[in-house]
């Protein structure tokens, strides 16, 4: 039997060693990031909002504050001792929540009824007037719009596409721009030692989501916008954080029952504030947090296996979206028939 040429043996041994080394390195880095995930979400004490001016008379601005995740941000920041500016379209809902907050948490509130989908100078003038004299140290860019349901791009109404991009991107950028000098002033006047800008992102920006393509793209915009801005504002003592959520039980997701992977807004925001500034499940990206434990696990596993931006995952998401769309169309058809009777 002819012996294998020695150089082949050396080559094979070399490849095996290299593969083992890469494997061990990968294993070690995965173990390290998993331990960091656990530490950041469970072992470290809750973040203290004193640095952001809690109980020192500083204010937090929350957009989309009348429902869902935004309403919880308003309440839970108030419970930490921040005064709150609440923004959404509906004055009556805002006033109700503001009254509840003032009674329960003994902080001040201000409400601004405004439609964030109207990209007009009047809108930004109104918002600017409302906040410029307040020591604002925290901005929660929460307002967001998604599609009415999963839909192919060509069938998406223009109004829907424009609203999603205006609210989720253009408004968020301009609102942020407007708030930075106000936050600077609050820090200069010692109402807070640091400022905080939170952008509410979504797993739709992490996994390309067919049939919600415009929403998916609008949320992935926030990834690099938030990271770039976080570096830009570091020396100004303003922290910028993209917060990633998978499903949460709100009107936007149209999911009513909470489960292991789908928290209520209350539980989601509690985890978010507790872990503010810590990466959680977003170990692979700075200025980003995936703060809810089961979401963090999902992201960690996706990142370390198929990859969050992979075609495989996009294919799987497409299948789920097709099923959701079919169910929704059937339901709409039934409603139409019921009306006709
Ligand atoms: N729910 C989820 O599963 C999920 C998952 C990932 C990310 N997110 C993100 O979380 C954020 C909050 O979503 P949510 O689920 O809490 O939504 P939601 O329950 O539908 O609440 C949306 C809030 O925004 C306000 N709003 C809507 N359109 C507005 C407009 N044109 N101008 C001003 N205010 C407006 C609404 O109040 P009015 O009707 O009074 O204006 C309401 O207070 C969004 O950025 C969303 O993309 C949600
Ligand atoms: C995704 O689906 C398409 C069409 O069904 C297929 O051609 C492609 O190979 C799939 N990709 C992966 C990575 O599964
Ligand atoms: C275009 C681009 O630079 N995208 C980056 C945005 O941020 C994510 C997460 O940190 C990167 O993976 C992308 O490459």
UniProtKB/TrEMBL annotation:
The chain crosses the membrane at residues 15-44. GO terms for molecular function: ketoreductase activity; very-long-chain 3-oxoacyl-CoA reductase activity. Keywords: Endoplasmic reticulum, Fatty acid biosynthesis, Fatty acid metabolism, Lipid biosynthesis, Lipid metabolism, Membrane, NADP, Oxidoreductase, Transmembrane, Transmembrane helix. Pathway: Lipid metabolism; fatty acid biosynthesis. The active site is at residue 215. Substrate binds at residue 202. Pfam families: adh_short (PF00106). One of its GO terms (biological process) is fatty acid elongation. It catalyses: a very-long-chain (3R)-3-hydroxyacyl-CoA + NADP(+) = a very-long-chain 3-oxoacyl-CoA + NADPH + H(+). Its EC number is 1.1.1.330. Its main location: endoplasmic reticulum. GO terms for cellular component: endoplasmic reticulum membrane. It is a single-pass membrane protein. InterPro entries: 3_ketoreductase_fungal, NAD(P)-bd_dom_sf, Sc_DH/Rdtase_CS, SDR_fam. It is found in: Endoplasmic reticulum membrane. Component of the microsomal membrane bound fatty acid elongation system, which produces the 26-carbon very long-chain fatty acids (VLCFA) from palmitate. Catalyzes the reduction of the 3-ketoacyl-CoA intermediate that is formed in each cycle of fatty acid elongation. VLCFAs serve as precursors for ceramide and sphingolipids. Belongs to the short-chain dehydrogenases/reductases (SDR) family. This is Very-long-chain 3-oxoacyl-CoA reductase.
């Amino acid at each position: 039997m002819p012996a294998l040429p020695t150089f082949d043996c050396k080559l094979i041994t070399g490849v095996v060693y290299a593969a083992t080394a890469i494997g061990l390195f990968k294993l070690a880095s995965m173990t390290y990031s998993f331990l960091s995930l656990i530490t950041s979400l469970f072992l470290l004490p809750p973040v203290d909002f004193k640095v952001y001016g809690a109980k020192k008379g500083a204010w937090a601005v929350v957009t989309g504050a009348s429902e869902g995740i935004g309403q919880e941000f308003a309440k839970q920041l108030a419970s930490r001792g921040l005064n709150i500016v609440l923004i959404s379209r509906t004055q009556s809902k805002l006033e109700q929540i503001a009254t509840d907050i003032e009674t329960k948490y003994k902080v001040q509130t201000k409400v601004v009824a405004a439609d964030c989908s109207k990209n007009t100078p009047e809108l930004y003038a109104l918002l600017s007037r409302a906040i410029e004299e307040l020591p604002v140290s925290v901005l929660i860019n929460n307002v967001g719009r998604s599609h009415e349901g999963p839909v192919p791009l060509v069938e998406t109404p223009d109004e829907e596409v424009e609203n999603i991009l205006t609210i989720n991107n253009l408004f968020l950028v301009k609102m942020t721009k407007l708030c930075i000098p106000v936050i600077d002033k609050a820090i200069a006047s010692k109402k807070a030692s640091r400022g905080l800008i939170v952008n509410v992102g979504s797993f739709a920006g992490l996994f390309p989501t067919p049939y919600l393509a415009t929403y998916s793209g609008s949320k992935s915009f926030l990834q690099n916008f938030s990271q770039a801005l976080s570096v830009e504002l570091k020396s100004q003592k303003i922290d910028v954080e993209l917060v990633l959520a998978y499903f949460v039980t709100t009107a936007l997701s149209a999911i009513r029952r909470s489960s292991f992977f789908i928290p209520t807004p209350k539980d989601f925001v509690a985890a978010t504030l507790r872990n503010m500034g810590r990466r959680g499940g977003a170990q692979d990206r700075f200025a980003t947090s995936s703060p809810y434990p089961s979401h963090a696990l999902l992201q960690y596993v996706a990142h370390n296996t198929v990859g969050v931006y992979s075609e495989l995952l996009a294919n799987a998401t497409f299948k789920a979206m097709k099923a959701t769309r079919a169910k929704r169309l059937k339901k709409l058809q039934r409603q139409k028939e019921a009306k006709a009777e």
